Amino acid sequence: MNKYYEKTGSTVTTSYYLGDRLVAQREGTALRYVHQNHLTGTALTTGSDGSSIGSIRYYPYEGCVIRMSG
Questions:
Q1: 40/56 Cα distance (integer angstroms)
Q2: CB-based contacts of 57: which residues, under 8 Å, 6+ apart?
Q3: Neighbours of 22 (CB within 10 A)
Q4: Is pLDDT above 80 for 10?
Q5: With 32 labelled, which of 12, 14, 54, 60 sits at a CA distance of 20 to 30 A?
Q6: pTM, whole model, 2 decimals?
Q7: Is the dihedral of CA 32, 35, 40, 42 positive or negative?
């Protein structure tokens, strides 16, 4: 519906912002925190307990490596 609320089928995702920066998302009852780099790209996603869910490392010339945990 908007950048704060999204519904796909029966799954509801709520996004939380600090100014224009996405800082967290709740999908159902699962809360994950979004850690951005200095260029506002997502660098790390952690669960509510602080464990790493996934990370993205950006390289020059459009390269990137995505690592997902779990």
A1: 12
A2: 43, 64, 65, 67
A3: 15
A4: yes
A5: 60
A6: 0.70
A7: negative
Which pLDDT band, with edges at 50, 70 and 90, does 14 fall under? Answer: very high
Number of domains in the chain: 1
Cβ–Cβ under 8 Å, residues 69 and 51: yes
Sign of CA dihedral 34, 52, 47, 13: positive
**Who wins on pLDDT, 10 or 44?**
10
- Residue in the block written with tokens 């224009």: 20
Beta carbons within 8 Å of 59's beta carbon, 6+ residues apart: 65
- Token pair 């390289």 is found at 59
Mean pLDDT of the chain: 82
